[in-house]
Amino acid sequence: MPDPDVSLLRPYLLTSGRTEPIDRDLEIETQVLTSELGAASHASLSFERRDIVALCTKTMSVAEIAAILGLHIGVARVLVADLAALRYVVVRRPAAGLASDPAMIERIIRRLEAIS
Amino acid sequence: MKPSAEPRTPTPVKIIIAGGFGVGKTTAVASISETTPLRTEAAITTASEDVDRTAHVPDKTTTTVALDFGCITVDDDIKLYLFGTPGQDRFGFMWRDLVLGALGALVIVDTRRMDDCYPAVDYFEKTGLPFVVAVNLFEGRLSHAVEDIRWALAIGDHVPLVTFDARVKVSVRDALLTVLRTTLERVTAR
Ligand SMILES: Nc1nc2c(ncn2[C@@H]2O[C@H](COP(=O)(O)OP(=O)(O)OP(=O)(O)O)[C@@H](O)[C@H]2O)c(=O)[nH]1
Ligand SMILES: [Mg+2]
């Protein structure tokens, strides 16, 4: 477990060099995948950022990252947003309007109906 | 370190599982998730909500709430997440974030402590998120008539009320299907 005080502060300290404003509203189900750039820059990253880039060679959600790395969800959101702004990870956020798309809802219904 | 060759990144969708403490949220998520459910913590700073202008130093208190989650892969393009969270007034801050873009919600009720689910019911009524009330049958049978429960919770006829057993996969599946059908009805009625 990282020191909680340090992990709460660090993301805010690390944001000075970012190229885009951090979107702190990143949904916790957002899918995260390490980019080639991220994989290549792995060694230059520190602490949780390095851990995230190492972890996300397989796609996972912000919530999973937080759970696996023992980070508070808010910290994980900021770190991922930060890494995404630097193009070290690519993110897939929930599509606007998907939750009200009948065809998509029907697909999920069929999938659940197949569970036994 | 190599990134995966052909990135397959599904679009995430979610259903919220809410309710008071000890009603079976974690159990329900675990029963149906295809992966071992995970737990994370969210820090909630209460002072960010209402700033007391008369105070020189804002009175900040940080609470930590647990968030359980699991998932079901729908197909290559869609991944359904289930988020289990305690429904409390003071967690409103996290709720806004959590609920945004959700397909719907399942509010679990223990009829021995019905009051505990009011904040969740209230919140979903206000935000207009489709939701279903699911009575967890701790004793294996219903101790109140369904209509009495409906009355006690002050939920209208438009809110489906089901009974289920959080420990049983197909029972959780059926409760979630009721949520999805409610959502589908809502979006096709527009
Ligand atoms: N008999 C019975 N026990 C249940 C049922 N669902 C849950 N339980 C038990 O009730 C207890 C509480 O269930 P949890 O799933 O932890 O409830 P929770 O809502 O996640 O609780 P908190 O996270 O503490 O708010 C556990 O010991 C479960 O094993 C049920 O349908 N029947
Ligand atoms: Mg729980």
UniProtKB/TrEMBL annotation, chain A:
Return the InterPro entries for the record: DUF742 (IPR007995)
**A UniProt-annotated Pfam family:** DUF742
List the PANTHER family. DUF742 DOMAIN-CONTAINING PROTEIN
Official protein name in the record = Uncharacterized protein DUF742
Please report the organism this UniProt entry assigns to the protein: Lentzea atacamensis
From TrEMBL, chain B:
Which residues are in coiled coils? none
Signal peptide residues on this chain, from the entry's feature table: none
- The reply to whether Cell inner membrane figures as a keyword in the UniProt entry is no
Keywords in alphabetical order, please: GTP-binding, Hydrolase, Nucleotide-binding
Domain of life of the native organism = Bacteria
Cross-referenced InterPro entries: Gliding_Motility_GTPase, Gpn, P-loop_NTPase
Q: Which family does the record assign? A: Belongs to the GPN-loop GTPase family.
| The protein's name in its UniProt record | Signal recognition particle receptor subunit beta, a GTPase
Question: What species was this sequence derived from?
Answer: Lentzea atacamensis
